[in-house]
Amino acid sequence: MLKKIPHTYVIVFGILVLSAILTWVIPGGVFDRQIINVNGIDRNVVVPGSFHYVENNPQTWQIFSALFDGFVDKADIIIFILIIGGAFWIMNESKAIDVAIRSVLKFSKSIENNRFISGIGADNLIFLLIMTMFSVFGAVFGMSEETIAFVIIFVPLSISMGYDSIVGVSLCFVAAALGFAGAILNPFTIGIAQGLSNLPLFSGIEYRMFCWIIINLAGFWFILRYAVKIKKNPSISRVAADDKYWLERHETDNLQIVYHTPLSAWIIYIILILVMGIFSWYNPVTNISIGEKSIQIPAIPIITVLFVITGFLTLRRSVHFFILQILLITILILITGVMGYGWYIMEIATLFFAMGLAAGISMNYSANKITRLFLDGIKDIQSAAIIVGLAGGIIIILNNGNIIDTMLYKLSESISGMGRMAAVSMMYLVQNLINLAMPSGSAKAALTMPMMSQFSDLIGVSRQATVMAYQFGDGFTNIITPTSGVLLGVLSVAKIPYEKWFRWVLPLVILLIIIGFLLLIPTVYMKLNGF
Fold first, then answer.
1. Residue 24: alpha-carbon gap to chain centroid
2. CA–CA dist 163, 227 (Å, integer)
3. Dihedral pair phi/psi, residue 284, rounded to 5°
4. How far from 8 is each of 15, 80, 144, 172, 496, CA to CA, in Å?
5. Residue 244: which residues within 8 A CB-CB, separation 6 or more?
6. Tens of pLDDT along 335-357?
7. CA–CA distance from 23 to each of 271, 290, 407 (Å)?
8. How far apart are CA 227 and CA 12, in angstroms?
9. Which of 59, 66, 110, 171 is buried deepest, with most CB atoms within 10 A?
10. Alpha-carbon separation of residue 373 from 37, 322, 356, 359 (angstroms)
């Protein structure tokens, strides 16, 4: 008789306990740190050669206090998840997402007969467009936590199209992770790593663009290959039983929708025009940052005009299409806010909260009903928020135990005496291992790059090669590491058990790690622009 696979909470708590045990085994040690300015932002980075052992700090009862500390440390992501859950539950109640799914299915069938498209496959074409968009977001501005909101959209869409929740998660989360690993202009990884290595900001972009294309080709091929298998035989899906949750909530075949437009929707339309008009007045031009370059465009006025036109047209059809238009405008404002105004979790959560309220009022729901739906959404998604806090406790234990610096020091010592290619390969391996315990790209750059960039000078390797080793090591394992609050949040929202995800994604991670190693070879043996 097969043993029951542990719950995701049990797995994560087990890792937390293991981390505490390691604090008894690994000696305590720390690097000295200093504040330096990196691309206009003060960063707390390690001082190369400053490692020294300190008194051990074994963790015991702190296992339980780490849960509290983890929740405090990850409070922004936890609140973000809860607000997203509540806002989208209101939108789900309106059946607007079901209308969107039905429209996509209808569109997919309508283009199947096209000779060119039939050769590629209508679904494959749609998936490629979606994944490319999210990969660009990951590569340009480091989209990560934001994908949690899109899981609620793409998982039911993929299931309604005859696939499973793994495909839905792959369309947004994995695609963004592929772009994040490619990191063409990602200021949170490449920007910091190059700044700490005293390299020109976003230099070597030509080769990184090539790497981004190769990584995407491999990742997209893996996802589409799996999607085709599931489409042919849905019973082979590992998550077939788990997907019943989404099938019950988004049954579009027998769904009866009364298309109408209540007066409240027109009122929301006018209010939103006034609000967006005010924002356009105070922000007539937005400075959109793309890498080290910036473009000044009237982004908010353009979005406002777009909403005025499309909002009117959709209201004449039905409130459901108007709510979908609100969702689209929300996404456009999100992109503008992130790239133009440096928005992060708080601003994005506020934006989606406003979207949920606008959707509820447009449907003419009472204040009590909107409140009840929002709370129902929080209850439904609270497991995702809890797992993020639980994962945060792991990092707290490792930090309080003073063993992260010791582990890094020992790993970096193992690189000494190796040849150039072997040394770069070991740097790559070290970055992958560190990422399993420290998923934060910016924190990892501050911890490792000051040492590794100087070490690369000693062995005659370009600092740019060291940055690439960090970039790949930081990116690929993000889709599998159990200490990542974003990954666990995504899986919990999608109702995918971690162990099932691990079994599916492990071959992809291995493939990407091998590709990353091959892409590092030219950085050592070839003369590349910017290297």
1. 33
2. 6
3. -65, -25
4. 11, 21, 21, 22, 10
5. none
6. 898 888 888 788 988 999 999 99
7. 56, 42, 11
8. 29
9. 171
10. 46, 19, 10, 12
**Distance, CA of 439 to CA of 435 (rounded, Å):** 5
Report how far apart the first and last C-alpha atoms of the chain are (Å, whole number): 56
Identify which of 166, 321, 343 has the alpha carbon closest to the alpha carbon of residue 257: 321
Q: Give the CA dihedral 21, 25, 26, 28, nearest 10 degrees.
A: 90
Rg (alpha carbons) of the chain, rounded to whole number: 24
In this structure, are residues 62 and 402 in contact, taking their beta carbons and an 8 Å threshold? no
Give the integer Cα–Cα distance in Å for 78 and 387.
9
Q: Look-up: residue for tokens 């009237």?
A: 298
* Joined tokens for residue 283: 């922000």
In degrees and rounded to multiples of 5, residue 44 shows phi and psi of -90, 105
The owner of tokens 């062995």 is 459
Q: Which of 409, 398, 401 lies closest to 439 in space, CA to CA?
A: 398
Two tokens, residue 323? 């709510």
d(CA 363, CA 357): 10
Other beta carbons within 10 Å of 275: 12
Of 193, 167, 194, 190, nearest to 180 by C-alpha is: 190
Contact between 407 and 26 (Cβ < 8 Å) = yes
The length of the chain in residues reads 531
The answer, as to whether pTM is greater than 0.70, is yes
Q: Cα separation of 67 and 523, whole Å?
A: 42
- Residue position matching structure tokens 């063409």: 184
The one-letter code for the residue type at 163 is Y
The pLDDT tens digits of the residues spanning 203-242 come to 888 899 999 999 999 999 999 999 999 999 999 999 999 9
Q: Can you tell me the distance from the alpha carbon of 222 to that of 165, in angstroms, rounded to the nearest whole number? A: 15
> pLDDT-derived band of residue 1, with 50, 70 and 90 as boundaries?
very low
List Cα–Cα distances, 304 to 296, 325, 361, 363, in angstroms: 17, 12, 20, 22
Q: Measured between alpha carbons, how far is 133 from 135 in angstroms, rounded to an integer?
A: 5
